[in-house]
## 1
Amino acid sequence: GQQLNQSPQSMFIQEGEDVSMNCTSSSIFNTWLWYKQDPGEGPVLLIALYKAGELTSNGRLTAQFGITRKDSFLNISASIPSDVGIYFCAGATGAGSYQLTFGKGTKLSVIP
Amino acid sequence: GAVVSQHPSWVICKSGTSVKIECRSLDFQATTMFWYRQFPKQSLMLMATSNEGSKATYEQGVEKDKFLINHASLTLSTLTVTSAHPEDSSFYICSAAVQGWANTEAFFGQGTRLTVV
């Protein structure tokens, strides 16, 4: 089946620093989604990408849909303590299917 | 974004009993809902796809008689864990796809923490 490789697995950064994480796949996805999950909660959608090459921002978050449609990255600028959590990438093949394949997550810790 | 509500948020049950978890789309109709299971420090594992008015599609290795799914309306899907055992203890999360939108977006419930004692 399809698999997403998400990296890094975890990261510790100083408050104010920028963060970058990415996902790669051996197969093509037509949609890339980035979610954040807080402990004991369901994932919350941060950014959705629908076109190859698309670059989308949501506040301090920026994500890009790779040209090959096999990768995506998420950047967080000027991190703050509430950015702490687990970030998941997810891909969908589209074509009427809403089924998502998830990466293994990136655990972000922000040191005040 | 669209709101998906999951109930209960947490539940403790005795081994051998059954537990029902509800997933509701509050402000949209969802022909398709998904049920995931998440173990500590791991990613979400898709269990089954729930389609309104038809039988659910289960992923390989997921027992359909163990995890009963009913999607009786466009706003409600239920997951029943039958004859629960301690190894069924986990975090269960549902998601719903927004019907009629051109793009794929899935919104998640807040999850249900199941503990079987």
Note: The mean pLDDT of chain A is 92.
## 2
Amino acid sequence: RKEVEQDPGPFNVPEGATVAFNCTYSNSASQSFFWYRQDCRKEPKLLMSVYSSGNEDGRFTAQLNRASQYISLLIRDSKLSDSATYLCVVNRYGANNLFFGTGTRLTVIP
Amino acid sequence: EAEVAQSPRYKITEKSQAVAFWCDPISGHATLYWYRQILGQGPELLVQFQDESVVDDSQLPKDRFSAERLKGVDSTLKIQPAELGDSAMYLCASSQDRGNSPLHFGNGTRLTVT
């Protein structure tokens, strides 16, 4: 089983819609979680860290469910500029590095 | 905002040739990573440095790939000889500490092997 799994999509949503992505991780000892955004042929950029209590940054909300071992990203009022691939990243306790999911492709349609 | 510098941005090389990529992390970041990303997939770790020491190179194809960070600052990743399957984006990233801090990526080097 992969360390981190994401639905690759694509998710095609109209402007203004709310969309949510989930990401599951396999190791219960995982301790740090992040969402990255990656535009086509560009480098990944940190969107937000995910905290145990959940956190919000404008239209974006991230949540962690340790019992079910998944993190989620909710985007409200989708903009055309939100079109990108969203990568889930997990750090496992005792590991030295971060594990990336394959990404979920989002396209916001006018 | 401080950035991770990478060069070149693009590289086209013929198979069996040697190719090298360079990375300068954000100042003060002790941890440096080299990732490879194939189109449609997530980044995969090739090698991780803590200062000048390699802490993880388990996924680095050591018969053809090598990486160094001699002074614990900038780093070079080399492929010799290049193969067609090496065509990918090579991403360098740095972080303040291992695992718990988010990564900051450079622009990447897009390698095409013909």
Note: The mean pLDDT of chain B is 93.
